[in-house]
Amino acid sequence: MKVFVTGVNGQLGQEVAAILTRKGHTVISSDKDSMDLSQPENIENFFTQFPDAIVHCAAFTAVDKAEDEEQLCMNVNYRSTSKLCDVARKADIPFVFISTDYVFDGTKQGMYTTEDATCPVNVYGRSKQLAEEYVLKYPKSFVLRTSWVFGKGNNFVKTMLKLAQQGKKQLNVVCDQVGSPTYAYDLASAICSMLFTDKYGLYHVTNENFCSWYEFAKQIFTEAGYDVEVLPVTSDQYPTRAKRPLNSRLDKSKLYTNGFAPLPTWQDALSRYIAFLKKEGECR
Ligand SMILES: NC(=O)c1ccc[n+]([C@@H]2O[C@H](COP(=O)([O-])OP(=O)(O)OC[C@H]3O[C@@H](n4cnc5c(N)ncnc54)[C@H](OP(=O)(O)O)[C@@H]3O)[C@@H](O)[C@H]2O)c1
Question: Which helix or strand (DSSP H or E) is residue 264 part of?
């Protein structure tokens, strides 16, 4: 199969491209230079011939910056996604779009199911909500909501490790936002196993188990062997430009009932990731 992957330099895109290549598929990829998603009007011209599937991993992911760059965020995340979905529809091929826990406002008690109404509280979440609505009208689409991604790129784990390496002995970390850290490699593996089925639709796909950012930070330092004291603070004590949902717990039962395997736990994923960073010399 010839699969077109966007965002090939991003955390998820590079894993999807690597796994598909290993499985013997031909990967055609794009990055910001070859296909700039801030210019939705140019998307269709990019395709001189059609692939057999599109996995759309690129996105404007700077959640705080999006509050001040709404137009850019909407162009990349919503308008360009719509254009890519139009290409898939024209070619009658599967289209995978990655969405986020940030489509919810986080006020629900308990886990969010794929049936729950969305209600984003920031620009990034709104851009993804609009894209979801558009993409889900295409019958051969997969919309996969994920959360708290870490992989070969900039992410929370690397930020914590950098602070430890700079000699920080004490850190305040938010304890009232709860969700699932998700390893880009595990998510990419799930995408690649779903892509060649006809079980289209909306899914929640994250590593198993939930934690707060505070608990996640503590586990990062334990796993990496750094002696850093982590102090819990509330979101109110740690204001950010974009508001974030407190409850990001996603119910993944639709994934299991459709016969897809649960992803490993986030603790297991973190352990493999830290081992990878150690091997690469990015962590002592
Ligand atoms: N990261 C998370 O915590 C998280 C959580 C929930 C959902 N998601 C979703 O999961 C997917 C993968 O995220 P990720 O963590 O892999 O993100 P990432 O590492 O930030 O990668 C995003 C990619 O999008 C590309 N991109 C940004 N603006 C672009 C533009 N104007 N034109 C073309 N490409 C552009 C970036 O290119 P450059 O490298 O050139 O900037 C980058 O390669 C995204 O849809 C994201 O919204 C992520």
Answer: none
Question: Could you tell me how far CA 51 lies from the centroid of its own chain?
Answer: 23
Nearest CA to ligand 1 atom 30: 37
User: How much of the chain is in helix, strand and coil states, percent to nearest 5?
Assistant: 40, 20, 40
pLDDT digits (tens, 9 = 90+) for 119-170: 999 999 999 999 999 999 999 999 999 999 999 999 999 999 999 999 999 9
Q: Atom 7 of ligand 1 has which residue's CA nearest to it?
A: 100
Place of tokens 């796994």: 19
C-alpha distances in angstroms, 115 versus 4, 19, 33, 186? 29, 30, 37, 24
**2-155+182-207+249-263: CATH, from 3.90.105.10, 3.40.50.720, 3.30.70.2520, 3.30.565.10:** 3.40.50.720
Full DSSP string of 52-109: SEEEE------HHHHTT-HHHHHIIIIIHHHHHHHHHHHHT--EEEEEEGGGS-S--S
Residue tagged active-site, from 124, 134, 138, 183: 124
User: What is the Cα–Cα distance from 84 to 54, expressed in whole angstroms?
Assistant: 8
